[in-house]
Design a protein that fits this description.
alpha/beta, Rossmann fold, seven-stranded parallel sheet, 9 helices, about 15% strand
């Protein structure tokens, strides 16, 4: 079988995969053309899809994504029964879980304000810091990223609440609710962490109604995709002084434009889609890729396969 990989994993990767019986070609995503996929069975990539036409995928049987998110996939491929797609579901969960813990602490301890005071060389006691003890933290999405965060937060004594599509229970959460109960549940939370994949169903799920239902002094964190939150409604809420603290690692259009109104709010902390970064990211990604190449050879079930019926 022929593999096209769009990231340079080095000579040892090509040698090892070659010994498995594959033929490997490397070409950077930014230079990829339709004709490069002729005769290719397996595409290992992040997001070359904007450069390619629908005809480019005719020979493909598998796409192995290096990313956790799959919203870059054309809908036809996401729903395809012919092309098997996998995504790096667990590869970045640990650093993102740590990032969530960090931002909750920043928000409840007012570390953003104390940092600004430090830069201004201003010594002023703050009595507004809060503990995480007994805080109700609502996770929109109860997958591995949410679980990694909850496992790290439990020693702080939080009450982890989960929300997913079916309301299925999980040992990691004190309560689980269905997505259609969002507006009723979100107002009970001291903090809300958005971990849902971006789909047609989750687009602007956190809308004006949901934001209005939240506590005025809640902490809001988004590590999933920017479009899960209605940014227009969020901007209006921030302008009206809503939220104790808000942290966005993702926005609907990246990179965020310098003239975006989101930059102006004191209670908003923006990071450039950085929460996934870790010194172990390449090793974990490579392990997942190699395992799926073995499974393709063996004809066994793939690791982290995308369900074409659900589209994620």
């Amino acid at each position: 079988m022929n593999i096209l990989v769009t990231y340079d994993y080095g000579e040892s990767f090509i040698k090892t995969v070659g010994e498995m019986g594959y033929t490997v070609t490397y070409k950077a995503e930014k230079n990829l053309l339709d004709e490069d996929l002729k005769g290719i069975d397996i595409l290992i990539c992040y997001n070359p899809f904007r450069r390619l036409s629908a005809a480019a995928y005719e020979d493909l049987s598998h796409i192995i994504l290096s990313s956790t998110g799959i919203d870059q996939l054309p809908e036809a491929i996401r729903r395809s029964e012919r092309i098997k797609v996998t995504h790096n579901r667990h590869g970045y969960a640990t650093p993102i879980g740590e990032w969530i813990v960090m931002m909750l602490l920043v928000g409840f301890k007012r570390l953003n304000r104390l940092y600004d005071q430090s830069l201004e060389r201003r010594w002023k006691l703050s009595t507004d810091a809060l503990e995480l003890t007994d805080k109700r933290v609502l996770f929109l999405g109860t997958g591995n990223i949410a679980v990694q965060a909850v496992q790290r937060l439990k020693p702080f004594g939080i009450q982890p609440i989960g929300l997913n599509r079916s309301g299925r229970s999980s040992e990691h959460f004190a309560e689980i609710h269905r997505v259609d109960q969002l507006v009723n549940v979100i107002g009970t939370a001291d903090a809300v962490v958005v971990c849902l994949p971006q789909t047609a169903e989750t687009h602007c799920l956190v809308n004006a109604q949901a934001i209005a239902a939240m506590k005025d002094d809640a902490v809001l964190i988004n590590i999933s995709r920017g479009a899960v939150i209605d940014e227009s409604a969020l901007t209006k809420a921030l302008a009206n002084g809503k939220f104790r603290f808000c942290a966005l690692d993702v926005v609907s259009a990246e990179p965020l434009a310098a003239d975006s109104p989101l930059w102006q709010f004191e209670q908003l902390f923006i990071t450039p889609h950085n929460s996934w970064v870790s010194e172990y990211r390449n090793a974990r990604r490579l392990n997942y890729i190699m395992e799926n190449l073995r499974r393709i050879k063996d004809g066994s079930a793939l690791l982290y396969a995308v369900d074409p019926k659900r589209g994620y």
